[in-house]
Design brief:
The chain has 280 residues and is mainly beta. It contains four helices and 22 strands.
Length: 280
């Protein structure tokens, strides 16, 4: 009677992204490259995809003696896992260099210890093809050896959401009425404007923008802006007091709504701008 194979946890990799409501990077597919897949088949390693990332388990035969012998001959032997996005908007909603496609390269030889969590630090490399992976994760096997034993590891990969300058364009409205309009966010932050502009279509519009105040993208809106109208005095001038609510929750810019790249007021940083058009 054959003895059932026992598998032992080797590593857990947690994939985080603060764009998502629960903080888990869920729109991603984890795939071992061909060399890694073949090695895992032959050496008793199993890949298990989880709701929060992926895990690797080792058979009893994948022990410290085997790993010491392997890494003695192949000092840089590693497993490579590739991340592929399930949506086409990862570059838009993820904080990354503007106007460039990059591949994130992670390694368990380069990481930070943040409150007891081993967070892998990325190196960004040019992404040459649109079907290239979003990221490569290299797990060097010698990092699992400690004092002659195999040590189970827990790694974290964390992405930040891109923050953008919000711009609202009011259309189908005349200048006297537009001058009474105010856009303000949930925290009372008032947008700059209105500024009368002409859209590429030639149609006039009134622009309000958040200036140096940037808002991160999120899967579910965490911040709303309201459109209000200032009260008029008897003389017909706008007053600072009461404001009439016109639209309590304006549409929130989506990741695909990045329309331009501008500089901050000091001219030393590029800022992505997201636009929403409001027809009144």
């Amino acid at each position: 009677m054959s003895k059932s194979q026992k598998y032992i946890p080797l590593v857990d990799v947690l994939l985080l992204h603060d764009y998502y409501e629960d903080g888990i990077f869920s729109d991603v597919r984890v795939v071992p490259d061909k060399k890694t897949q073949t090695f895992m088949w032959n050496s008793g390693l199993l890949l298990r995809l989880t709701d929060v990332g992926f895990s690797i388990f080792r058979a009893d035969s994948f022990n410290a003696g085997y790993l010491e012998e392997l890494t003695e001959f192949f000092k840089d032997h590693h497993l490579r896992f590739q991340l592929f996005g399930e949506t086409g908007e990862f570059t838009n909603y993820t904080e990354s260099p503007l106007g460039k496609l990059v591949v994130y390269h992670y390694s368990n030889r380069k990481m930070e210890d943040l409150g007891g969590n081993e967070v892998l630090s990325p190196k960004m490399e040019p992404r040459l093809f649109s079907n290239s992976p979003l990221a490569n994760i290299d797990l060097y096997l010698d990092e699992f050896l400690a004092t002659g034993e195999i040590q189970e590891k827990n790694y974290t990969i964390a992405y930040k959401a891109r923050s953008t300058r919000w711009k609202y364009y009011l259309l189908n409205i005349q200048e006297p009425e537009a001058e009474q309009m105010v856009i303000v966010d949930d925290d009372g932050k008032e947008f700059k404007g209105p500024t009368q502009i002409k859209l590429p279509t030639g149609k006039p519009a009134f622009e309000f923008d958040s200036g140096e105040h940037l808002y991160p993208f999120s899967e579910q809106p965490r911040k709303y802006c309201s459109l209000k109208k200032k009260a008029l005095s008897i003389a017909g001038e706008s007053e600072e007091g009461d404001q009439e609510m016109l639209i309590e929750k304006l549409p929130v810019p989506a990741p695909r709504a990045i329309t331009s790249i501008e500089e901050n007021k000091d001219g030393d940083k590029q800022i992505a701008c997201s636009s929403v058009y409001v027809y009144l």
